[in-house]
UniProtKB/TrEMBL annotation:
<protein>
    <submittedName>
        <fullName>Uncharacterized protein</fullName>
    </submittedName>
</protein>
<keyword id="KW-1133">Transmembrane helix</keyword>
<feature type="transmembrane region" description="Helical">
    <location>
        <begin position="114"/>
        <end position="139"/>
    </location>
</feature>
<feature type="transmembrane region" description="Helical">
    <location>
        <begin position="73"/>
        <end position="94"/>
    </location>
</feature>
<dbReference type="GO" id="GO:0016020">
    <property type="term" value="C:membrane"/>
</dbReference>
<feature type="transmembrane region" description="Helical">
    <location>
        <begin position="181"/>
        <end position="202"/>
    </location>
</feature>
<keyword id="KW-0472">Membrane</keyword>
<feature type="transmembrane region" description="Helical">
    <location>
        <begin position="31"/>
        <end position="52"/>
    </location>
</feature>
<keyword id="KW-0812">Transmembrane</keyword>
Amino acid sequence: MAPNWRHALRLSSDTWDPSHRFQTSWLLTPWVLFAVRAVFALYAFATLFFIIGWQASGHDGHDIHDVHKSFSYFTVLCYWAQAIYFLLASVNTFTYAHPSTPTLLPRFPPLFRALYALLYTTVTTFPFLVSLAFWSVLYPSIPSPTFNTPFSLYTNTSQHALNALFALFETLATRSAPAPWIHLLWSLMLLAMYCGLAYVTYAVKGYYVYVFLDPRPRLDVEGVNVGGVGK
């Protein structure tokens, strides 16, 4: 039983990705896969830092407090996870594609490899949850002026539409193996921890991260914050 659990957790050094699934694609060459992942990482980090700079500089009624609040939003946390994953994945793919460079990921300690596998699972599942919740629950209740500014249109498109496209690419275009069932448990634990964080935020800061977390009836949505970006 123990070896099976170790394999499911990606902790067994002798069974770790022997056919280089994390570094290859059935559709693209390793160099093209590296380029795509690098572009995704660059775009995601550029978007995140642009949002921070825009809000901190006081544009569109934002201020530095909006930057602080953004780290309580599941949307933003998931987008940071995608940015970090694509950075690591692009470096990992580059070391595989470059003939004189040892592949990076198998050289890391087992715990790091296990966390990388779990990170892959989250960035190929959570973005779909983010997009589904936004377009089906939040978007219908948003005042129409929310998308009238280029900033809001750009950020919401990046974090609530392109995020799912990035995840879809990783799911369909790469050779990464399906996640082990144990990752379902870890993913549910992460979601439960986030819900706890959301209610801790309310207890400490006095506001709900998302309006649908508020158990009280909501009669209006004036000034609603959309995924930590829109106002």
